[in-house]
Design brief:
Number of domains: 3
CATH superfamily of the largest domain: Spore Coat Polysaccharide Biosynthesis Protein SpsA, Chain A
Strand order of the largest sheet: 20-21-22-29-24-27
Structural class: alpha/beta
Strand content: 25-35%
Number of strands: 30
Shape: globular
CATH architecture of the largest domain: Alpha-Beta Complex
Number of helices: 10
CATH class of the largest domain: Alpha Beta
Helix content: 10-25%
């Protein structure tokens, strides 16, 4: 029998609330390029290059992010099995679904190893990370449930900890998990040298994890199995059955299995790990100037020290400030004390209760056919820049409350307007009256760009009646 394949399982959920306004509900931090030209999701997979025995990745995502995941994998030349969670149930059910899928794909071969990785972490030391994975493989092959413990470099109160037990080749017996400590307790953990930060990364055989789940969380195992059995294919995605999956208990891998198993192993990892839990962490992943400031974009500063200064467009200028986080996006500006960066979540929760759309979308909203960007808005009007990828088309749709004017600024537009079919090129325009069925398509080889002017009594995105849609929305 062949040696077991390693299937990376990439957990693509998470909202990154504390990283607002960079991170939004429909474009959270795992899709952002915070370190280099690649997103955190893309780098999660790129750092696996060179590991022996890698199989096809399995990405577990939600409905809203499915096209983002597919597009970002395509950009780096990778394909993955993309499982769609119909409800948020934490990490244990997500990994259980991946394990069931991986075993089905094995088709009688050796049960695959699952390398479970959150999609929103930064790991600077790729070689050290890969060595830790190699050290974990023999234990996982023998049925152990392996996690990776980060060597702490400070008394951190924002992370859970793992206490190590007896030494093993390349690692230790997993003694126990410890909840987030207070500052004094965190210092004792650091001084003791026998505690690691909990990374949320794992390696185990698919069957070993499912056996443990059957022992410690049988209802979860049963419901996820039912959700997989009733799953359905939708384009490049596998949709888990909503009723069965939603009936599963919601729990993390730690609580469901790792805290209860007597087969746990922890492998030390010292590789420049950072989960970028809040905006103050941005100062630790990029270059810092001589005044201790992490800067990105069009930033100018005088007498400014130990700040995070990010601008996504307009000039950001500071004078005589220190220990601040200042993040300017086209639609929002955050100013926060670095020591209070974790409290941004409280602000975002308040914005959501107020119905503010700035928590949901970035100024550029990505769709499977391309993207759109808000340019201007006011009472009864809205202006957008719409980009449609070559060969892509919007749904056949109509609106009850708005009319639209389209002006082509680049490329060629094939347009359905009621009973008419139009072909427009640059500097040509058309008008879509309220209630008229219409569709926009790019038949060309270059991106299609149009400026859309909406007018009407209601301009929300939910005023779309889709009659046909290539993307199954």
């Amino acid at each position: 029998m062949k040696p077991p394949v390693i299937r990376p399982v990439i957990l693509c959920g998470g909202s990154g609330t504390r990283l607002w306004p960079l991170s939004r509900t429909h474009y959270p931090k795992q899709f952002l390029c915070l370190v280099d030209e690649y997103s955190l999701l893309q780098n999660t997979l790129r750092r696996l290059a060179g590991l022996e025995g890698l199989g096809k990745p399995i990405a577990v995502a939600n409905e809203h992010h499915r096209f983002l995941v597919a597009e970002q994998l395509f950009e780096i030349g990778l394909k993955a099995d993309i499982l769609l969670e119909p409800a948020a149930r934490n990490t244990a059910p997500a990994v259980a679904a991946a394990a069931i899928r991986a075993l089905a794909d094995a088709d009688g071969e050796a049960p695959p190893l699952l390398l479970v990785l959150p999609s929103d972490h930064v790991i600077a030391g790729i070689a050290a990370f890969q060595e830790a994975v190699r050290a974990a493989i023999p234990h996982a092959r023998e049925g152990a449930l392996v996690t990776f413990g980060i060597l702490p470099d400070r008394p951190e109160t924002g992370y859970g900890y793992i206490r190590r037990g007896a030494p093993l080749p390349g690692g230790y017996v997993l003694d126990r998990f410890v909840e987030k400590p207070d500052a004094a307790t965190a210092k004792t953990y650091l001084d003791s040298g026998d505690h690691f930060w909990n990374s949320g990364m794992f390696l185990f055989r698919a069957d070993s994890f499912l056996d443990a789940l059957q022992r410690f969380a049988p209802v979860m195992r049963e419901q996820v199995a039912a959700a997989c059995a009733a799953s359905r294919r939708d384009l490049d995605f596998l949709r888990l059955d909503e009723t069965a999956f939603a009936a599963s208990p919601a729990n993390s891998i730690d609580y469901a299995v790792m805290e209860k198993t007597d087969h746990g192993v922890v492998i030390p990892l010292d590789a420049g790990w950072n989960d970028i839990g809040a905006s103050d962490a941005l100062a630790t992943i990029g270059q810092v100037d001589s005044d201790g400031n992490a800067r990105r974009g069009d930033v100018r500063s005088v007498d400014t020290n130990n700040c995070v200064l990010f601008s996504e467009g307009r000039l950001l200028a500071t004078v005589g400030v220190k220990d601040l986080v200042v993040i300017a996006t086209p639609d929002a500006v955050l100013v926060a004390d670095k020591a209070k960066a974790q409290d941004v979540k409280t602000l975002v929760d308040d914005l959501k209760r107020s119905g503010r759309c700035e928590t949901e979308f970035r100024h550029v909203v990505h769709r499977p056919w391309g993207s759109y960007e808000g340019l201007a808005h006011g009472p009864r009007y809205q202006v957008k820049r719409i980009l449609v990828k070559p060969g892509a088309s919007l749904s056949l749709q109509k609106h009850h409350h708005r009319a639209e004017h389209w002006v082509v600024v680049k490329g060629t537009a094939a347009i359905v307007r009621g009973e008419e079919s139009l072909l427009l090129s640059e500097n040509q325009s058309t008008y879509i009256p309220l209630g008229v069925v219409h569709r926009l398509e790019n038949p060309g080889k270059i991106d299609l760009e149009i400026v859309e002017v909406q007018s009407g009594s209601y301009l929300g995105e939910d005023d779309i009646v889709r009659l046909e849609d290539t993307y199954g929305r």
